Amino acid sequence: MRSFIFNIAYWSMSGVYAVICAILALIPGRTVLMHGLRSYARLTVHLMRWICGIKVEVRGTPPKNQPVVIGAKHQSWGDGIVMMAKCGDVNFVCGDHMLKFPLIGWVLKRCGAIVLSNQGGSEARDSLMAGIVRSQGEGRPRPVLIYPEGHLTAVGTGMRYRSGVWHMARALDRPIIPVATNLGHFWPQQTWHKFAGTAVIEFLDPIAPGEDRDATLSELEARVETRSRELEAEFAPVAKPSHGQARPAVICA
Length: 253
Fold this sequence. Notes:
By secondary structure, the protein is of the alpha/beta class. It has one domain (2-237, 246-252): Glycerol-3-phosphate (1)-acyltransferase, CATH 3.40.1130. Helices cover 43% and strands 15% of the residues. The strands form 2 sheets. The protein has a 7-stranded mixed β-sheet, sandwiched between helices. The longest helix has 23 residues, at 2-24.
């Protein structure tokens, strides 16, 4: 029942905020719009706690207002929402699937988001380079959030890390901040059911992107995946696994 209540509340709120943020996007600059987006993210985190019993714990130091590239694990639809709630004025790289939602394309454009084709190829590379140029031209640098895997992954799994995070860090001359998480235990990918527990977002030590692309990506992947597996084990459920995938002991269904 709590999952049902949360999803109704979340998607209703998302629709309202889409309209509000589309209106805020008419205001010159992005300051007011970013306040609106962060308000949406913080309210979602509160709903996760109040309705579903999902407590978000932050470890390490979120790089607020710092010129860094955040390379984060991507297990849940809620990942970007939580990161925006915790990292302040953050820019982000997202897939073009986000454009299917009404008004979102306009809002993404106005807040400076870097929208890439999920199919990759030359179009995605061109979009990435355009985003790098825009980021270089910002008066006050802000963190750029990117998910190197490019897709949501199930708990306990991972995908090959793509090179976009390295290209961005090198072009902007910024360190990469790895971020591990276990949020997928409690808000799995894009599923309807949510599960109560402590979701951890952990900011790890920075990585200086060297000239060797593959070595940098290997180090980033090793750090993020290893720590994510440790977080998953730390908050391992005591209930029996369901359909081959572990679940927290308390279910918000």
